[in-house]
Each structure stands twice: as C-alpha cells, then as structure tokens.
Amino acid sequence: MILAADIGGTKVLLGLEDQGKLIAQHRYPSVDFSDFDSLLATYLADAAIDVTQIRGGCLAVAGPVADDGTTAKITNLPWHIDTQALSQRFGLPPLRLVNDFVAAAQGAVIAPASDHVTLQPGEPLTQSPCLVVGAGTGLGMAIAIPEAGDWRILPGEGGHVAFAPADAEQVGLLNFLRARHGRVIWEHVVSGPGLTAIHEFLSGQTASPEQITAAALAGNACCEYRALNLFLAAYGAYAGDMALATLARGGVYLAGGIAGRLLTLLPHSRFLAAFNDKAGHAALTVKMPLHVVTDPLLGLRGALHLATRHR
User: Fold this and answer.
1) Count of alpha carbons within 13 Å of 105, Cβ hemisphere only?
2) Which of 49, 66, 99 is a domain's end point?
C-alpha cells in the first residue's frame, strides 16, 4: 500500500492506494490537532492500518519544503513536519515531501476528462507545457512538462507576482489594497481573502468568501455578484498572463475550490474575456485549452502518483 496526505491549513486528507484503488480515505480539521504527528497517529488508528504493509508514501504540504526534501513548515499552522522523524516513530518507509500545489498539479494533468469542465477547447499541443493555477486560501501555480510518458512538475510562485490592474476599477482596488499591504500581489486579489477584500472595496462591508459566493449564486445580491465578477476578471487576467509566460499550449487547468464552486458563473463572467485579452498575443492564448478540474481529491491523487516517482 501507498500512503498519501494532502495537508492544508484548514483540513487534512489522508488515504491509501491498494492495488490501484484509493481506500481508507479520512478527512480531519487541522485545528483539532496540535501537530501532524498526533493527526497521523489518529488516522492510523481510525483506519486500523498495519504499517508494515505500507511500502511508500508522499505528504503534500501547504508550505515551503526545505532544500533537503525532508522537512517543511505549514504556512498557516504551527506545524513542523519531519519525514525522517515520522518514519522512525511510526515504523514507516521513507516518505516523499512535496508542496501541496505540486501534488494538485500532478493530479490535474492525470485526471480523466470526466473530471474536467472545458471553458475553451483551444488547439492543444501535446508536447507543450501545461499550466495549473488554483485560487483558494492562497493562489497556487505549477508547470507540468511532458517527460518520458509521465510529467515533470515545476512549482512556481506566480501568486506573489505584483498585481497588474487592467482598468480604472482595478486601479482603485490596487490603491485600496496598497494602503493595507504596501506591495500588492496577485494573491491579495485572486484568493478567498482577496474576494473578501474586493467586496469590502466595493461595498465598505466585510463578508466571508462563502457568504459572498452563496449570495451571488442565489442571484439576489447585486453587490456580491459585482464583487465576484471583478474577482473572476482578475482571475482570468492572471491565468492568461501566466499562460503566456509559460507558453502553456498543452492546456491551462484551474484547480482549487473556488473555481469548482463558481462553475455556473464562470462561462458568463468576465473570466474568459480577461484570459484572452492579451493585445497582440490574443491569437496565442485563444489556442490554449482551458479547463476547470472538479475532483475534490485532486491533491491526494496527485500525492499518490508522486509517491512512486522520484523526480
């Protein structure tokens, strides 16, 4: 069996692959545990797992992985993960440690077509890079390059690139956020907290991303819908810019929970127009396939795939 975990600031997903099937899947709220060691002990007990049957594993973590690939600090939790210590304590084989968006990107490019909703078919070039971006608590990005029948995943930090407003309204948003953050990055705009900030900029009122989304989807909240439309215009512009930077003719995949929750709004929003609004290079971006990945276990499946590959 192969052990995999998708470790985030809000939740942790764990599961096993046994003969090609995902089994013993469990979800735990991160805040219920003081450290990952105690959470893993709970999982092994809940799933009644014989650790001697585990032959490998991969932990995908929402935070930077050390250069030696064995330790990581979770960005939004006081958790420090040490794979060597975990192996010693629980009698596990060596575990691979990767950034959570590396796992999400791996999951996205191997997901079946039934797990994709296509926003733009484009004209894919199968040997070209794919781009995977995802807005959630933060803004992740990774590049997937075809290699020897599989994929080489390169992490990126595009979410920390400076925000580039596209019109007068977005210039106003930039100034609003600059007073709060100083340097304004894309993650301040295209993320759950970014949606809250956009709503506050437009209305002067604070609301959670869930409240804004629910009100807009219900169709009876003008300000919330306006906030979401501005958010999706910025998301599309960012995805298109990153697609140009990486020449992602293999395809662009939207991962993360926000895109999935907004599937009914995306086709009628400003997202696709902003994605392709690239002046002299619009003819290039329109050839890039654009998909939303809908599998909620994307990161876990990607981690399982990476567990047996050492690139």
Assistant:
1) 27
2) 99
